[in-house]
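pls design
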């Protein structure tokens, strides 16, 4: 599961939404503690691009939608939409929806239907058809929860539904001699 921790390191320091923001071609990360993995620079600049951006100053949210790409160092997140919620001028939650993909050369690729990063407790949750791939190793489940403070990660299988394929169990294939 250490691989999953590194993969989510990019989500540990999403920036606060600037007051009065209308567009967001480049957003700089706020200082944050290093993740437990120690391999990702949370202070590196974050760039966000999308087809559109909408700020709601009343609810203190910013939403990027349409082919959203978030990049910090060599880690990239892609999703249909990304919404940031702020509290007291600081990012509180980052919510990615629709075809969420997080790529990192150090840790592989995680895909899922949705992802939520809760900034203060430093918890990342990926849900819906979650697949974690590193090299030829593959892990499937319904939900992946990573605590970036403790380094603990849990993948759950979810419940099966009538008429839906799947076992409701976590499944993995690991090749001992692969890179």
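designed seq:
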């Amino acid at each position: 599961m250490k691989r999953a921790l590194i993969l989510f390191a990019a989500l540990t320091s999403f920036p606060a939404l600037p007051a009065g923001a209308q567009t967001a071609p480049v957003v700089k990360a706020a200082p944050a503690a290093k993740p437990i993995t120690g391999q990702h620079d949370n202070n590196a600049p974050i760039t966000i691009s999308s087809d559109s951006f909408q700020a709601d100053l009343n609810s203190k949210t910013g939403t990027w939608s349409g082919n959203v790409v978030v990049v910090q160092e060599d880690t990239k997140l892609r999703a249909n939409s990304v919404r940031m919620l702020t509290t007291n001028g600081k990012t509180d939650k980052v919510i990615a929806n629709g075809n969420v993909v997080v790529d990192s050369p150090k840790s592989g690729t995680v895909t899922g239907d949705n992802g939520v990063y809760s900034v203060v407790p430093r918890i990342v949750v990926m849900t819906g058809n979650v697949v974690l791939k590193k090299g030829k190793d593959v892990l499937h489940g319904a939900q992946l929860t990573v605590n970036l403070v403790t380094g603990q990660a849990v993948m759950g299988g979810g419940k099966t539904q009538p008429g839906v394929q799947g076992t409701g169990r976590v499944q993995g294939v690991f090749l001992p001699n692969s890179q």
